Amino acid sequence: MKAFILSVLVLVSNIVFAQNTMTIPPTITSTNINLTLQNSTHQFFAGQNTATMGANGDVLAPTIIMNQGSNVNINVTNNLGQTTTIHWHGMHVSAVNDGGPHTTIAPGATWNPQFTVLDKATTFWYHPHLDTFTDEHVSKGIAGLIIVKDPIEAVLNLPRTYGVDDIPLVVQTKDFDANYQIVNHSNADDVVMVNATVNPMTDVPAQVVRFRILNGSSQRVFNFGLSGNKSFYQIGTDGGLKEAPLLLTRLPLAPGERTEILVDLSGMSGQTLQLMSYASEFGNGIYGATNPGMGAGMTLNNYNPNPLNGTDFNILQLNVVNQTAGAITSIPTALTTVTPFLEANSNQSRTFTLSPITGGPNQLNGDFTINGVSMDMNNINVTIPLDNTEIWTISNNSAIAHPFHIHDIQYQILDIGGNPPPAYAVGWKDTFLVPAGGTSMRVITKFTDFADTTVPYMYHCHMLTHEDGGMMGQFVVVDTSTSVDDFNLEKSFVLYPNPSKKTYMTAKLNKDGEEIKAYAIINSLGQIIRYEKIDENEVSNLYSFPVFEFSTGTYILKLFTNDDIYTTKFLLD
Hints:
CATH superfamily of the domain at 343-478: Cupredoxins -  blue copper proteins
Helix content: under 10%
Low-confidence stretches: 1-18, 483-491
Mean pLDDT: 92
Structural class: mainly beta
Largest sheet: 8 strands, mixed
Radius of gyration: 25 Å
C-alpha cells in the first residue's frame, strides 16, 4: 500500500509540475567498446536506495554510437554475481554474436562479440536476454540505446547534437515495494520514468528537436502524444528511416519498439509542454488499457487499481528554452527509399499461433505458448534456409495483444487482420503488437548473411513476463548449398551401431580431454530435426541418443565439442 500511495503522489505531482532533471545517458563512440555489468543502488526517490543493475554505472547503460560498415570489438564483463547475457536488439548480426539465451556470460567472465555493423541508420537497444531471467535483469536497470549512423542519414538536414536537440528517451514503468525495491514479474507497474528519472523534466531548444524513443517497459504499451494535441513528425521505425516524415498526433509503442520523431518548437521559447501517453484511447485487450483482456470480465492480478491504466498521463515535461547556434528549423520532405519485399518472391510461409495455456476468463494470469509449445532450450522449433524470403503469419488466439519480436532480421508488415498496417508501422520493424482476439498479422522478411546450425536465434513475445514464462521459440538459419563432408571416424569419433535399427546410437570421442557439448540431427532436406545441448552434469566423451522416433533413411549427425565440430552420416533401417 505504501508503494501504491507513493506512486499516486508521483503521478499527481507529474501532472502539476516536474521536479527532477532528466538524466542523459553517457555515450561510447569508440569501436572498442567495454561494458561492465554491475550491481549497485540508485535513488529513484530522494533518500531511498533501491538495488539496481547497470552497465558502467548504477542503472541503465551508455548509449553506444556506431557507424554502418565499422568493425566493432565489444567486451562485456559480468560482475553481477549471476549468469546473464547481452542482446543487441534489432541488429543484424550472426547468431553467435546476437547475445541470446545460449550465449551466456558466467559471473566474473567477459564475453567478446565482434561484428561488422550492417544496419541502416536507426535507434536500436541492448539488454539481457537470459532464459527466464530477462525481466529481472531489465527491470533492475540494464538497458541502453544503440545509435547507428550511415551516409544516407548523414546528408539529411536533421538534428544531431546528442542530449541537446537529439535526445534519447528510455521510457519505462516499474513497480516498487514498500521498501522502495523493484518488483519484477509484476502487473502493478505504476511508476513512470524516463532515463531512470522519476517525474522528469528536460530543457529543449526552440527549434526542431529529435527524440529517439524506446519503450523499455516490461509489459506496458504507451500511446505517445504531446499535450494540446500538438503534432509531430515520425521519421524512423525500429530498423531505419521512413521514406518521408509522417505527421502524427498519436504514436503507440509496445515493449521493445523504438521510434524517432521530430517536434518543431520554433517560436515557443519560455513555454512548457508534456510528452504524454493517451492510454484512455486504447480499446480492450492491451496492457495499459482499462481492461487488459478483450472482455471486462477478464482480470489480471494486481493490474488495478493503477492510475496509469486506461487514463492519460504525463511522461516527460519539456521546458522550451532559447534556440542554439546552427539550429535546425525545418522538416525535411524526404528521407530515404524503403524497398518492399514482394510476396511473389517468398520461398515459404509459416504460421505462429499465440495461445494461452489456461483458457477462459483467468487466462491473463497464466503463461502463453507459440504453436502450442513453451520455450525449450534444447529444441529448435524452425529451420530456415539461408537467403529464404518468408511470410510469417502471427495469429493471436489469446485475449491480450502481444508484441512479436524476431531476432536477426527486420521485417515489413503486410497486413493486420486483413487490413494494411497503420502508417506509423510502415517501414522496417523487428517488434510489433499483434492485436488480441484471433487477429493475425502477416510479415515478410529475408534471412541473409548468417547461417549457424549450432547457435539459434529467437522469436518471442516482448512482454518480458510472457517471455520468461516460455512464450518464445528458436530458429536456426542453415546454408543448404554447403555440402557436408564425412570425417575420418578413426581420427575423430566412433558412432555405433551404424546402420541402426532405430533404437539408440552412441558417439564416442577419441581425442583425449574432448567432451560432447551438444549434437544436432539433420534430415535429407537439410532441416535440423533435433538439437540438444548436453546438461553440464552429463558432459563427457561418450553420449547415447535416441533415434527411434525417426523414419527409415539417411541422416547427418553433428557433434559439437569443446574443441571442434564433427560431422558424419548415419543410416536408420
